[in-house]
Amino acid sequence: MKAFSSCPGNSCPKELEPWALELVRKCKGLPLAVVALGGLLSSKKSITEWSSVCDNLNWQLNNNQMLEVVKSILLLSFSDLPSPLKHCFLYCCLFPEDYEIRRKRLIKLWIAEGFVQQVDRTAPKEVAESYLMELILRSMLQVVRRNEFGRPKRCKMHDLLREIGLSISEKEKFGVVYDGKVEIGECESHQARRLSIQTTKGIFNHIAVSHDFVHFLTLDLENAAIDVLPEELGTLFNLRYLNLRGTPMAELPKSIGELRNLELLDISETNIKELPSEVAKLQNLRHLNMWSKFIADIHNFELVRGMQVPFEISKLKKLQVMANIEAEGNIIKQLRSMTQVSRMGISNLKEADEQNMCSSIQNLKLLHHLCLMVNNETEFLRVDALRTPTPTSEAFFVWETRKCTALVLLTSKPTYLWLHWSRLKDDPLPHIAALPNLRKELLYKGVMPDIQELWIDSCLMLNAVPYGIESLTNLQSLLLTNCSASLIGRVNDVESKDRSKVLHIPNIKCFKRRGELP
């Protein structure tokens, strides 16, 4: 049971058994009640705390005979949340029923809404991540998908939890849902601080005359069937977060320049090809996400296009994330002044850009995630102009290069390496071996096609089989020595997805240490 996950053997301590039996009896065999109660009790360690939970549940049931057991427990779970987590939970309720919420999207929204408390020397993103994990631990959110590192990628909320949350949200004027069944004016009459629009019918005809909208901090229209934003968008001067990801929109209104408090703009996977010059007025902008809607088809480089950005974008001195931009004009040269950038993607690079690219990258001391792409197989990039390795800790190489030294020059300590269309002439493994923090490596078709033996030694941070190892069709031997238990387990487990990737290799051996069988 989750309530005892931190106890020895995951078993109930003797002194808590009477309370545990009493609480289980009140669940009446209902699975959701047991799960929710386990999540609630996971943070309770003493008899006093368990007794208090039992007393509160008894009070709920005795004073409201119409309230079901499950709802009583869920209400109790909500009441037990710290104040910031209550806001985060209620915010999740505003998403549609059974909706899978992206972790990154949720965290950015929580930060933009001001739910995340300041903690000394801890980034807001990390604090928000801890909130999410706490809600998952308490069974207030369900993980429906994890990434390759085991971190939650998408979450959703149980229908009954959402129903209770929406009731609380409306009562406390936290937020309301507009689904098109009533006039949007009726939603405004609730005087809620947030409006979740789950239909696109006529909503932007109303923005110009609505006085309540101007107080909104976030506008999230991800995947909405909206192809035009009105000029009245500029009246939402308090907006910190504008998400248009996945919409069929082809351009942004010029009034976007009026959103002087905007911190995040996401136009990924839209039909927008060029940013208006007015974007350069957004002096508080920190995140500018512009990934192509075709990025999933990474094998066709003609489809991987970046966004055309105005020359003046270099004036945005607070910008931290900028991906993915088109290498045009003097934009590469201008990047060197954007010293706060930590994540950046550039596409359609050419050999002629090399000098300016290296100069700019060298000047970006906070850069830890870099994606460089070419869109023409006849182009080759080198990084000879780099004087020393950059501090980049996470790097993608999606380009044409023939020199292995690029791996070390571009980044001295990557955790993620992606080799695609590299056309490497030299053996890259000695250079990869010099990257001690590598956790994930992607080997796409065309990289080392004739390799027959692969020895991975002392890569303790590498927890999964290198992605694309199945493309090494001539590989005859794979030797793992002194590697992580996770990596060895994935290779040996017949039911593991990673096992299927190495079935074509006749000889596979795993050793904990040199000369010692696992």
From TrEMBL:
Which stretches make up the Disease resistance protein winged helix domain? 94-163
GO biological process terms, semicolon-separated: defense response to other organism
Cite the entry's keywords alphabetically.
Plant defense, Repeat
GO molecular function terms here?
Answer: ADP binding; oxidoreductase activity
The segment(s) forming the Disease resistance R13L4/SHOC-2-like LRR domain are 196-439
Pfam families, per the entry: LRR_14, WHD_DRP
Q: Which PANTHER family match?
A: DISEASE RESISTANCE PROTEIN RP, DISEASE RESISTANCE PROTEIN RPM1
Q: What is this protein called?
A: Uncharacterized protein
